[in-house]
Design brief:
This protein has 77 residues and is mostly helical. The protein contains five helices and no strands. The protein is elongated and about 50 Å long. 3% of the residues are buried.
Length: 77
């Protein structure tokens, strides 16, 4: 796997996902259902989901005009 592929994966799925993927790929063991579930969970933790969680923790509705702007930016990442 080249650096260009790794960079693309980091941009699309985030560093925690790519770190776990490389770790699992490097050990050459078959993928278990639990490991796959863990990777799927990590892949869903992206900028947009993190922004939504932060807004919820702050008590800001996603329909708030400021939240809409922030979510739009997070969706671009």
């Amino acid at each position: 796997m080249g650096w260009d592929v790794i960079a693309g994966l980091v941009l699309q799925y985030g560093l925690p996902f790519v770190e776990k993927l490389i770790e699992k790929w490097s050990n050459k063991n078959p993928v278990t259902p639990e490991e796959w579930k863990d990777l799927v969970s990590l892949s869903q933790n992206n900028a947009l989901s993190q922004m939504k969680a932060a807004l919820a923790r702050a008590g800001i509705a996603e329909t708030d005009p400021r939240a809409i702007e922030l979510l739009a930016e997070a969706a671009k990442a």
